[in-house]
């Protein structure tokens, strides 16, 4: 496992931390460079198992606090010995701790059934290899937008919880200001919890 | 001036390799990723590719040398080779790997043996040419010049 720092500190752009998973040494080298040149921090690992270890999902406690290792995006190869990218995807999406992290699957094989399966399981996108610089830049911009949106929602959520900390669902009946409202005012409902889209998504500007 | 000549030779040679199908757009993509902070990037990736390929060719030879060929294992090796050659833009090697995988599917041992020979040949060819190209690159840099970009093939 290697961790590298990007050298785009002066650009003012928030640096995403990407976990890249690929059993091919050549591909790891290329994806690392693609990500670094796109101002991302990269951690590259060679297998699904190592990825889960890094993410703290294999039962072992990571020695560093989760926030310090915060991964903003996982890019994984599909065909890997041992755990495939699809299996890794399932494990990540099945974990309450990690399921919000966007996962992108990469494959040299443009198989529709495979693409569908990954998207159904919650992959953000399916990239056909070889991955190009434009793919990575587009992905980065898309993820950055998502992060900004989460930040705004989080601030909004905190504001709401400050304003309405007494309005839990059980106390709504006794609170005059909420008598007309059908919406529970607990912070958890502010963050939308839509099911993941099942169709392939084009990464156009929102 | 020497740098000009070297740069022209480099461009001519690159164009030839592209036209003959030895290299494709992915190689240009790699060139894009090289800069002053990573001046040896292409050389590093290509070196990794050479190491990886030699290992894979060895594995393929051993796999095909067995009494009972394990086509699934064979296919796994070819798939890897196809992947890495595609990642560096070694188009002809990649294409032979595609044919090779079909033969693995068909469990055609003789066909696979022929393909192995072919892929070895294509690999040696591209290796020689890449080494020559990269030598030219190094000469350009040593003479203080910039490596011309192969934008037309991106």
From TrEMBL, chain A:
Domain Response regulatory, chain residue ranges per copy: 17-144
One Gene Ontology term from the biological process aspect of the record: cytokinin-activated signaling pathway
Positions carrying 4-aspartylphosphate: 77
Region feature Disordered, mapped onto this chain: 153-206
Keyword Transcription found: yes
Protein name: Two-component response regulator ARR5
Family annotation (InterPro entries): ARR-like (IPR045279), CheY-like_superfamily (IPR011006), Sig_transdc_resp-reg_receiver (IPR001789)
Biased composition (Low complexity): 169-189
Compositional bias of kind Basic and acidic residues: 193-206
UniProtKB/TrEMBL annotation, chain B:
Keyword Cytoplasm: yes
GO process terms (BP): cytokinin-activated signaling pathway; phosphorelay signal transduction system
Superkingdom field: Eukaryota
Keywords: Cytokinin signaling pathway, Cytoplasm, Nucleus, Phosphoprotein, Two-component regulatory system
Cell compartment(s), UniProt: Cytoplasm, Cytosol; Nucleus
Pfam families with a match to the protein in the record: Hpt (PF01627)
GO molecular function: histidine phosphotransfer kinase activity; protein histidine kinase binding
A GO CC term assigned to this protein in UniProt: nucleus
Modification type Phosphohistidine: residues: 79
Residues in HPt domain copies: 38-143
Signal peptide annotation: none
Function summary: Functions as a two-component phosphorelay mediators between cytokinin sensor histidine kinases and response regulators (B-type ARRs). Plays an important role in propagating cytokinin signal transduction.
Domain note: Histidine-containing phosphotransfer domain (HPt) contains an active histidine that mediates the phosphotransfer.
Protein name: Histidine-containing phosphotransfer protein
Biological source species: Sesamum indicum
Species classification: Eukaryota, Viridiplantae, Streptophyta, Embryophyta, Tracheophyta
Gene: LOC105156934
């Amino acid at each position: 496992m290697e961790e590298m720092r990007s050298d785009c500190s002066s650009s003012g752009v928030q640096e995403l931390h990407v976990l890249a998973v690929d059993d091919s040494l050549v591909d790891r080298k290329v994806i690392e460079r693609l990500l670094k040149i796109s101002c991302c921090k990269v951690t590259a690992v060679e297998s699904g198992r190592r990825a889960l270890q890094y993410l703290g999902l294999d039962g072992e406690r990571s020695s560093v606090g989760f926030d310090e290792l915060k991964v903003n995006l996982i890019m994984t190869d599909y065909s890997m010995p041992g755990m495939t990218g699809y299996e890794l995807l399932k494990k990540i999406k099945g974990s309450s701790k990690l399921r919000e992290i966007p996962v992108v699957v990469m494959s040299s094989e443009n198989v529709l059934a495979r693409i569908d399966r990954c998207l159904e399981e919650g992959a953000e996108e399916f990239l056909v290899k070889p991955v190009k610089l434009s793919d990575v830049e587009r992905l980065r911009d898309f993820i950055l937008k998502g992060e900004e949106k989460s930040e705004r929602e989080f601030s909004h959520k905190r504001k709401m919880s400050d304003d309405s900390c007494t309005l839990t669902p059980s106390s709504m009946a006794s609170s005059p200001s909420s008598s007309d409202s059908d919406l529970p005012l607990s912070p958890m409902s502010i963050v939308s919890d839509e099911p993941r889209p099942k169709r392939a998504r084009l990464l156009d500007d929102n | 001036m020497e740098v000009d000549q070297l740069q022209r030779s480099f461009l001519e040679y690159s164009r030839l390799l592209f036209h003959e199908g030895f290299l494709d757009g992915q190689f240009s993509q790699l060139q894009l990723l090289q800069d002053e902070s990573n001046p040896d990037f292409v050389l590093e990736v290509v070196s990794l590719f050479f190491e990886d390929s030699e290992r894979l060719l060895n594995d393929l030879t051993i796999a095909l040398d067995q009494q009972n060929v394990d086509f699934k294992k064979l296919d796994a090796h070819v798939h890897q080779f196809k992947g890495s050659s595609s990642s560096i833009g070694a188009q002809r090697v990649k294409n032979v790997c595609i044919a090779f995988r079909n033969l693995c599917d068909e469990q055609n041992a003789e066909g696979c043996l022929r393909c192995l020979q072919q892929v070895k040949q294509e690999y040696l060819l591209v290796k020689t040419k890449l080494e020559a190209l990269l030598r030219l690159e190094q000469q350009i840099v040593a003479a203080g010049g910039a490596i011309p970009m192969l934008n037309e093939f991106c």
